[in-house]
Amino acid sequence: MYSLLCVALACLVMQCNAFSGWTQTSLVKQVELGGSFSQIQWEADIQRTDEVPELTTEEYRPYIIYLSQTEDDRLSYIRATVGLSNAKKDKKQVLVERGGAVLNSHDTYWYAVQIPRELALSAEALRVNVIASILHDASPLPKAIKQGEKQYLVWSGDVGLRTPYATQFGRVMIQVPKDKVVSYAPDDGQQTVKGIGFGPYEGLEPYDPVSAAVLQGQVRYQYDRPVITYVELNRHVEISHWGDNMATADTIWLRNDGAKLDGHFSRAAHMVKMWSNPSVELATQIHTVPMLLPAGAQDVYFVDASGNVSTSTLAPSANSNGMPLPRPLEVQPRFPVLGGWNYSFTVGWNQRMSSAKLLKRLPGPNRYRVAVPYLTAPNTAAIDETSVRIVLPEGASDIQVTLPFKMDLEQYTKYSTYLDTVGRPAVILKRAKCTSRLNSFVYVDYTLSPMAHARKILAVAAAAALIFFVMA
């Protein structure tokens, strides 16, 4: 009991130290609603309140933002920049770290934006911009519609400000696509061209989860697009030094999370509406899945359980100033994917590592570095689960992986295929709750000696010689 009390007191002291030292002249929270995920941006003008910041031993000073439990549970991505408030440029990207639940609160979580020492020491006001992606932040209402009917989504969340600092001026803006607001609450919100504004709030005291609750609101809007979710995206990458090739295959389980179909699907009605008013018929159906394949992608294939998806469209290879350009691909499913429906397919391609500059020779004997893109996905899709398996050449050793962000799983294993002797080393990475913002490179360093490089040739030669002598 005594030890638990000590831990609680230590956490309280730590939070009090982290949450002090700043006051906010303004805080604007902007929620940009979409389909399967939304984007939240906080813009704060802050001023330090103490005369001499205690930064003698620490390189950073934290600025704290609060997220609701729903935002924390569904958070995919969070980044922050900071700079002088009166400077439009020279913004520095800084680290954001999750702190955990706020004491005495079951629905508030705090994140620390690490303000660099040179800015934290400044007597001038600072501007902090934080951007976050929240998955599945809106849901269809009604949950089921008839074929061809309009689709509506509803969002619920904070329309008041949740912040640990005293704030002179604050506002919450809810943006919806193309001025499609149907209804909102509370009624004192102000409708603008881009959405709904709540506030302004003036003279706000720091949020206390014990004595007050954050004002909640709701916005219902028309959404004339499919709600695209990648339930799973499994990427398999094989590296070949002999072929100077990176072979990539993405297996995707796609789902339309929009309003489900009420009743049966009519192919005849679908064809009539495709001829008379295709934009309305396709508004909430997944008719094509756009993908942007990397520059230099070749030998592209796209298949599903029935075979080649021949209705898809792949742009021809193009160059700009002698450099290959990314290749747009539109995978067209064999049937329109309506709300609640699924579709699975695989897209694969090859890349020459030398021309794409994906493989680099490092200092040291037989040391290499390969750059592997973590994912490829439409910028409107939420990705629930991702898995990437990177298969290195047989005999690769001393493997080191540099990650662009935190993973849920990092595992080292073996992968065996034809003509292998001991199997190829493989790295498996997994992460949940992703968007296209996480399309970054994973860097894998490894050693591949000439003897290990020639292992397969020697094994094949030995097997051929053995067969020859046995048959002789």
Entry keywords:
472 residues; mainly beta; eight-stranded mixed β-sheet; 14% helix; globular; disordered N terminus; transmembrane helix; endoplasmic reticulum; transmembrane
How would you describe what is shown here?
With 472 residues, the protein is mainly beta. It contains eight helices and 34 strands. The strands form eight sheets. It has an eight-stranded mixed β-sheet with strand order 5-4-8-2-1-12-15-14. A hairpin with a 4-residue loop joins β28 and β29. 32% of the residues are buried. The model is unreliable at 1-17 (pLDDT under 50).
Number of strands: 34
**Low-confidence segments, ≥5 residues, pLDDT <50?**
1-17
Oligomer: single chain
Helix content: 10-25%
- What is the 3D form? globular
Q: What count of helical segments does DSSP give?
A: 8
Task: Give me the secondary-structure category.
Answer: mainly beta
Largest sheet: 8 strands, mixed
Q: What's the mean pLDDT score?
A: 88
Q: Beta-strand percentage? A: over 45%
Report Rg: 27 Å
* Adjacency order of strands in the biggest sheet: 5-4-8-2-1-12-15-14
Distance between the termini: 82 Å
Organism: Malassezia yamatoensis
Membrane topology: Single-pass type I membrane protein
Pfam families: Ribophorin_I (PF04597)
Signal peptide: 1-18
